[in-house]
Amino acid sequence: MTADGAIFEGGFESPALQAxxxxxxxxxxLARPGAVEEIAGCTPPDGLSVAAVxxxxxxxxxxxxxxxxxxxxxxxxxxxxxxxxxxxxWSRGTAxxxxxxxxxxxPLTDWAAGTPDYPDRSATLIVExxxxxxxxxxxxxxxxxxxxxxxxxxxxxxxxxxxAANAARFPLGVDxxxxxxxxxxxxxxxxxxxxx
Amino acid sequence: MPKRAQHASSGEESDxxxxxxxxxxxxxxxxxxxxxxxxxxxxxxxxxxxxxxxxTGSVMLRGRIGGTGAPFNLGEMTVTRCTLSLEAGAVGHAxxxxxxxxxxxxxxxxxxxxQDDTARKTLRQTLIDPLRQAERETATKRAGRAAATKxxxxxxxxxxxx
Lengths: 196, 162
Fold this sequence. Notes:
The complex is a heterodimer.
Chain A: E1 11-12, H1 15-31, E2 36-38, E3 42-43, H2 50-59, E4 66-67, H3 74-83, E5 88-89, E6 97-100, H4 102-105, E7 124-128, E8 138-141, E9 149-151, H5 159-168, E10 175-180, E11 183-187, E12 192-195
Parallel strand pairs in A: 4-5, 4-6, 6-7, 7-10
Antiparallel strand pairs in A: 1-3, 2-11, 8-9, 8-12, 10-11
Chain B: H1 10-25, H2 28-42, E1 48-64, E2 71-86, E3 91-97, H3 101-113, H4 117-148
Antiparallel strand pairs in B: 1-2, 2-3
Helix pairs in contact in B: 1-3, 2-4
């Protein structure tokens, strides 16, 4: 193999500590939906945010097929294969993880939602956004949220319906992370989403 | 469905798999000794740097009973892997059994060196062939020990009702 140096560069600087910190942040994000977690400490490849890559580095491995948008180049695929070990899948139904814009990941019903016996066999989507604020306001409620939480990530207007439909399938459904730069927010399937 | 680009002809790839397997299975002290010999034959080793320093972890080994059984998890095995690149740009990978970091380093370095056509010729003579020879001898010796305990069963004619 000729060295395309960029494939091997980046990732966590001290994998043991930073992967543990990123894993903890990922857990916190899902435990407190709507709260923004800082996930830093890794050098991402071109085309992905720090938070999205840190989550993948701490969660994805050789057993978790990863879906990337069709337009993603092979360098990105090779980078993720070297650093996470996660193979790229082209079929949305078999992916354990998927990274992309909201538009690329829609509709949410494409992804593995688990089965009644094994609701954990579902996909986790990492949605790359432009901003955590300034979008249409949403009200969140459910486990991990005292009363109600207001968020306004830069999602399209119809996102609330898609997220509400995902929550309505509980215990089936997908779990989402919204990522912007070094920040991530969890939106698990247990969170009920309303448009304000 | 797009496929990953083939970076080498399949012959070249299986060749690389063969030497990676041979090097990682090799007895670490023997490999160290052969590497010293190879270093002299090559007139020194090039500079290199880590892309992924050695890290130890475990991999799940999967097995299959017979040729038709369903795969099952046989057990976990400790392995050490690392990746390095030579100044010239060649990238060497290694995954070796056990926790011997220096063994992994030597295998990755040799993997990178073996990608160079001129170095490969020298290395084949001074390192790969002796290691293959040693492996063959070990296998023959073990087969001999096992063969000594072999029991041949045969069925005697039983006094069936005639």
